[in-house]
Amino acid sequence: MQNKITQLFGIQYPIIQAGMVWASGWRLASAVSNAGGLGLLGAGSMYPEVLQEHIEKCKKATDKPFGVNVPMLYPDIDKLMQIIVDQGVKIVFTSAGNPKTWTSYLQEKGVIVVHVVSSVKFALKAQEAGVDAIVAEGFEAGGHNGRDETTTMVLIPSVKEKISVPLIAAGGIATGRAMLAAMVLGADGVQVGSRFVASPEASSHNMFKKWVVDAQEGDTQLTLKELAPVRLLKNKFYQDVQAAYAEGASVEDLKILLGRARAKRGMFEGDMEEGELEIGQVSGLIHDIKPAAQIVTDLMAEFNQAKSEIQDY
Q1: What ranges make up the beta strands (E) of 171-251?
Q2: Closest listed residue to residue 277, CA positions, set 53, 21, 78, 81
Q3: Where are the beta strands (DSSP E) in the chain?
Q4: In sequence order, what are the beta bridge partners of 69?
Q5: pLDDT tens profile 159-175
Q6: Residues in Cβ contact with 3 at an 8 Å cutoff, skipping those fewer than 6 apart
């Protein structure tokens, strides 16, 4: 399958594995790349030296293209970018910040730059910054999210109408049918997160993976908008947040309640009560843990099946 996204990245299928914190290490990224998609390392949960180790291991595990996702709010971002350039990584996805800050620098080093946005406004700013492609991520997505709560089904055609660079859809995509729907709406490819969390290669804790598989419709909620909107599974920590809101908690109160390293505590260390459990709404459609390569194969098989079915209408 060849289109703008497969040609841009030099991959077989227009499927990008999201660079999720505490899930997207070298095992997952290399497995997805080897299967024909684009694997991403999630640098947001890595110290600079850890990122370097994951890049080196990923290069040994695959000869296919892979990239790194870098949240712009990362405190030592200059160190991350230097490692990325020194290691010869050719694809970077940036998020949670101003794309102008690093786009030109990276492109001068021969790096393809993609920026993640949650609105038309920020998509236009990313295009103005000169990015090579844009990920438009809807309200359904896991982890940190947009304040406007625009759903993927509305966001994708809205962004497509305004930009000319290749567009990748994200948020609520865990099946081939959803992939086809996103591309009918105007996307050139899809970014898949939650589905890849439920794989043996994801570095997330096995208890977190089990909770994802057991999740039902309505088991996640977007919250903590006053800090950074995040979609969470409804565990004890989530209920504590809701109780704090009911008591009129201030922004400072919420910061104290959140504390530090709570996402690591939940998703990586397996504290299902006090940890922050970031996952998408689509977790209600994820019923098993299976290898990343099988996920890619199943996505494409269902995509092609759905495509053939709608041709009968």
Answers
A1: 189-192, 220-223, 230-233
A2: 21
A3: 15-17, 39-42, 66-71, 91-95, 112-117, 133-137, 143-144, 167-170, 189-192, 220-223, 230-233
A4: 42, 93
A5: 999 999 999 999 999 99
A6: 14, 188, 189
Residue 208 near residue 267 (C-beta atoms within 8 A)? yes
Tokens encoding 239: 């209920």
Please give the structure tokens belonging to residue 216: 């039902």
B/e letters for 30-60, b = 16+ CB within 10 Å, e = fewer, are bbbbbbbbbbbbbbbbbebeebbebbebbee
pLDDT attached to residue 205? 97
Q: What's the DSSP call for residue 51?
A: H
CA-CA-CA-CA torsion sign (23, 27, 29, 32): negative
Dist CA 109 CA 218 (whole Å): 44
Domain 4-203+284-310 coded CATH 3.90.420.10: no
- Sequence spans of domains, the chain: 4-203+284-310, 216-282
pLDDT at 13: 98
Report CA 188 to chain centroid distance, whole Å. 16
List, in sequence order, the alpha helices (H) in 226-268. 236-246, 251-258, 262-263
pLDDT band at 27 (very low <50, low <70, confident <90, very high): very high
Residue 63: half-sphere exposure toward Cβ, Cα within 13 Å: 0
| Cβ atoms within 10 Å of 203's Cβ, excluding its own | 19
At 131 the three-state DSSP class reads: coil
Q: Is 144 helix (H, G, I), strand (E, B) or coil?
A: strand
